[in-house]
Amino acid sequence: xxxxxxxxxxxxxxxxxxxxxxxxxxxxxxxxxxxxxxxxxxxxxxxxxxxxxxxxxxxxxxxxxxxxxxxxxxxxxxxxxxxxxxxxxxxxxxxxxxxxxxxxx
Amino acid sequence: xxxxxxxxxxxxxxxxxxxxxxxxxxxxxxxxxxxxxxxxxxxxxxxxxxxxxxxxxxxxxxxxxxxxxxxxxxxxxxxxxxxxxxxxxxxxxxxxxxxxxxxxxxxxxxxxxxxxxxxxxxxxxxxxxxxxxxxxxxxxxxxxxxxxxxxxxxxxxxxxxxxxxxxxxxxxxxxxxxxxxxxxxxxxxxxxxxxxxxxxxxxxxxxxxxxxxxxxxxxxxxxxxxxxxxxxxxxxxxxxxxxxxxxxxxxxxxxxxxxxxxxxxxxxxxxxxxxxxxxxxxxxxxxxxxxxxxxxxxxxxxxxxxxxxxxxxxxxxxxxxxxxxxxxxxxxxxxxxxxxxxxxxxxxxxxxxxxxxxxxxxxxxxxxxxxxxxxxxxxxxxxxxxxxxxxxxxxxxxxxxxxxxxxxxxxxxxxxxxxxxxxxxxxxxxxxxxxxxxxxxxxxxxxxxxxxxxxxxxxxxxxxxxxxxxxxxxxxxxxxxxxxxxxxxx
Lengths: 105, 490
Hints:
The structure holds two protein chains of two kinds. Chain A is mainly alpha-helical.
């Protein structure tokens, strides 16, 4: 499988990851090299093999559906890069929002 | 008494217990050494104030008769573990400035046992790398150099800083994480012990995620006994990590102190004899087999037929999981934000500017192998191969109790080498990745020096959740190998 610049542009778009135009060709080359190396997996007969997604034998545990924490809006919002908007500026326990650029005209 | 920084975890504990040194004196001695060796670039953040504060609290606890297992022991923590109030970067520009408001379970367990935080250690960005060269904060220098040469060598990766600080005696122990070899390979490159526990033994909660079905925290130290002491404190079931095993923690320290390997069957997998491995490492491996035999173990030839497919399968599974885990870095809730004309462009700009080249490469590979039309050919295929790799180990462990292999195909290489082609760098993890894919515990023990005077490690791999047998065998190997060499100047 060989990837060209258009394919990299499409994957980068899916990943929401900006790859500068002048790097597309070199990235395409690297990814093509890695995928070519990965192709050797086709030598393995996996006809009746069930895929292994987790090595832990443990069944995912369930717990009672009840609130076990909360009231920490200030801690949740502490690292917000665009700052926070508080529901009740006087009472931060009331919660708040991450500030993002305007998305609706 | 020798310098405090020369003492092991066990020796420091004894010195503090007999009041020959206080935790504060121990912290001060290690802080001085940390400042002396800043040139290694092994710490992203030093935390001397926090260390002294924790050491004073430790001395107070000891005075009250409440000493824990690691009371007053200074540790380096890989900067992938969230530490409350101390910046955590994962070695990435995208998380610069992020200060967690919570503590990872593993580090919380260590502080509960009395340990002292010395600083956050440097690593490959998001733990993706085998050289520590992908860190946004620059590479780490290995304290070891080739005899008669001044070229800087890499400490291995991704937990390169954690390995370097233990080898340089800045701390007696540290934490790392291992996804495909990120504890064992740097331990081998730096001449120390590093253990990747069974997947599920240590909680992943509060550890920045790379590949969630593979990531596992574990310890570094200069002896098997010290490694066991750290593992003892780090381990245990955690309801906050749904893959954390609800199992009791065995007495790892006792296992490490009683290397009973008489009659133990040591599996030697023939598929690990591959081209490209340094002849000196092959020779050391053979010597390791002889040492184990002399110590009373019985070597057994075993076969792990799918070994060579572990690496390519890993480079589908790990990037796939990475691409989905790292989707969270979008410039909205924490870390870097780079503005754009709309929300999508803000995401794209933030991620384009925030991630380094190796992380970007893996996100793109992961996105591709998970995308419509390619999922079955790549991701599903890799998961099927992973099942075969796990089955190989299950069958091998019907004939033996532990496996003995080299840890890495070469000794530490020079900074800047292997950087031209990503696959060349990936091959460094050929001996560590198979056990990772099967979730098994592995330990690297320093076992000798090569002709250039660089340390080489041997790896032991155990059955799932059988770290006690693994530690016993490792202690026997350590005793037989008698590795006492130190990096010159450290």
